[in-house]
Amino acid sequence: MDTNPDRGYNRYDPTDKPRNEGTAIAPDGDDRRIALEGYPEIRLHLQMIRLTEEDLRLISLMQPFIADNQDQLADSFYECILQTDNLREIFSKHVDMGHLRAALCDHIVAMFAGRIDESYIERRFRIAVFHQKVGVPPKWYITLYQNLLTILLSFVHEISDRLSDVERMRQAITKLISFEQQLGLEAYEQRSQNEERKAKAVIGAAR
Question: Based on C-alpha coordinates, what's the Rg of the chain?
Answer without folding.
Answer: 18
